[in-house]
Predict the structure.
Amino acid sequence: MPPVPLLDVPWQPTLDWSRAAAVALHSSRGRATDDRFVTEARVAATDNGLAVRWHGRFDRLISAPEDTPVDAAGATPLLWTLSDVGEIFGGPEAEAGRYAEVQLAPDGRWVALDIDLNRDESPPYRSALHQPTVLESAVGAGSWAAALMVPWAAFGRRPESGETWAGNLYRLIPGPAPDDPPRTLLAWSPTGDSFHRPERFGRWRF
């Protein structure tokens, strides 16, 4: 595995995606990235939280059925088994195995989880108390774009200026059926077959 990357995340009084930090997502498994799934993620820090936007190509879009239920908070449970999703993992305690995970689908469905790999339970997550705000969800001819704002409370606190957190940016394309293995795993900092490897997360410097 290559050294973990460092991303300087700009602070913005007014969100401007053209000035956000931009990264390409590559195969998490170290393979050549398929041109059909080229994906970019953009990140910016604001007073309201961490803003993230994904723009990705697709050959055939996999989405949750329209009648898929949501929970009381508006989240779609097990979204990653049902839909193409952009994902963000990270936080000030991510290196210790405790971090936020938020996923966003091209149709605006989302799920937010609190991860603790130290918990003596399976799976090692719970529904998050703090929900994201969806800023964008659009599907075009062969590509989609989606963006959200993750409140600082979801990470436990707001970062200090100059502070560095461990985190990662992903895209997961599931198989044709919910029980199938993922078709494609893309990552800013490759983690292999599992996204939950905080020792391989990149670093966000605020």
Observations:
- Residues 115 and 121 are 11 Å apart (CA to CA).
- The chain has a mean pLDDT of 95.
